[in-house]
Amino acid sequence: MCGITGYIGYxxxxxxxxxxxxxxxxxxxxxxGIAVLNNGVSGxxxxxxxxxxxxxxxxxxxxxxxxxxxxxxxxxxxxxxGEPSDANSHPHTDISGSIAVVHNGIIENYARLKSFxxxxxxxxxxxxxxxxxxxxINHYYQIxxxxxxxxxxxxxxxxxxxxxxxxxxxxxxxxxxDRLIAVRKDxxxxxxxxxxxxxxxxxxxxxxxxxxxxxxxxxxxIAVLYNDHVDLYNEAGEKIIRESSHIDWDAESAEKxxxxxxxxxxxxxxxxxxxxxxxxxxxxxxxxxxxxxxKIHFDEFNLEAASAKAKRIVIAACxxxxxxxxxxxxxxxxFARIPVEVDIASEYRYRNPVFDKDDxxxxxxxxxxxxxxxxxxxxxxxxxxxVIAITNAVGSTISREADTVLYTxxxxxxxxxxxxxxxxxxxxxxxxxxxLGRLRGALNTVQYAAAIAELQKIPENAExxxxxxxxxxxxxxxxxxxxxxxxxxxxxxxxxxxxxxxKLKEISYTHSESFAxxxxxxxxxxxxxxxxxxxxxxxxxALLDKITSNIxxxxxxxxxxxxxxxxxxxxxxxxxxxIADEIWTIPQTDAxxxxxxxxxxxxxxxxxxxxxxxxxPDKPRNLAKSVTVE
Length: 630
Ligand code: AGP
Description:
It is built from 19 helices and 27 strands. The protein folds into 3 domains: 3-254, Aminohydrolase, N-terminal nucleophile (Ntn) domain (Glutamine Phosphoribosylpyrophosphate, subunit 1, domain 1); 256-466, 3-Layer(aba) Sandwich (Rossmann fold); 468-630, 3-Layer(aba) Sandwich (Rossmann fold), CATH 3.40.50.10490. By secondary structure, it is of the alpha/beta class.
């Protein structure tokens, strides 16, 4: 929610900020703005350009003339307090226009602070919670400014001590043209370390064009960036020394590479992302059965030790990551014969869950910053559980607070709709479930080897689906105007439907839901009519007869029918039953591995429906990529 950036160095700050904001636009796109200290000279003008609308609106305005200067901050907004408007856009400035602030997060006690400041004569220009921060800094600055040392840092620290809530901040001031102050608490912020230039950004892709050396700020930490070095401080204002970290991602991975949208690019990156996530965790076992047999191994941790006493697995996540958790429930039960509880993180944190400190607790989050997921992790840790995080973001808050991290090697995921993160999360889950199955004796040697053989097919099975994209596009061009799209399936197929329905909702704005096929008759079938497309996931041979009856029921109510099934016998039987307008197939594989492939069809379908409806799939309305506030 909201992206912030900042630059100090030798380049034209307006250009750097705009470029960085383009990489952060997925975090919010209802307004954008920059503040640049003209010419980086003390007492020079603090030039602010900010406006409602997507970043392209600001870009067009800056093309007419952008402020000169080598120090600046920028923001792309996802409105929480105050509607999208020029006035509510960031940066916000104090009454004299000499301090500017960009903010990502929510200030919970802003109303109280507003009264405090109003009583001291401050007139507010916006309805945002953020504006209190800049006035508060100025309030303390007026007291501190004539004292020795760094009055801007001191006044920022004093203002922070009054704030409740979450924030990542960039602060610049007319009196200090040589520095940029950055702060984080419960909202992500990364400091990029360049040569004679330094930067801040909410997310790594915005920094990659300049550097891959970074500091991941911890909660409460403050960075003061100069053009030739960065000082780090703790909450108390004491200097701290820390080694920088290196980010593996390259700058190209955060570009569209000729695709019309990031989402389409990321869908196509799945075979590689799946290989990158899978292959390093498969090694020759050198078992009595001979070298060349594969075994799952985790460099990151010892699964045997972590799970030794576990009688149960608990999974918590949000959105797409939650759907990966639903597949996880079935997969762990299937391979490892262990009970699994899977919960939406935003529910979990409020429901006073029953804990066993030996539970194996798994948190799933692409960004590693989702507020509710982080809260579930903290709750689990407070109660003594050991937490494994599956995440894509090195250095994210969740990766730092979990006991163990299993990284999905998907590369940066920019599109709001999660695609390659989901399928790589599933690979991590399969790896854990199969290995746990071996450790618990639920899988014998033959079953273990067979499961690994199926795992290895996943990347090429994904390639198989991608080859059908023209057929998917043609079908989407016929169906994109359907008022309702319902997904039906059982078990793994139901989980595939849940994720598919979310994809369709978020980027094509079609009302879509996934129903456990057996539940149709208990209510949902009343919704089915000729304006409905029913997508049946029918990948499990053992359940074909059941799902065939369900499809007949919806057909007799006038719905259109699309079936996703497996090649071979299932495809032949469903084709013979003549119950589909269209059948898409996945290569033969065992039931647990069907969602990771079948969902790719529906990622493509949702993408093409979105485009056919004239939407921008990368920037769906009302959504932001990382939900870092409740
Ligand atoms: C998926 O397409 C969504 N954009 C959303 O549901 C997302 O999966 C959810 O917000 C969780 O994000 P996380 O994986 O970064 O925690």
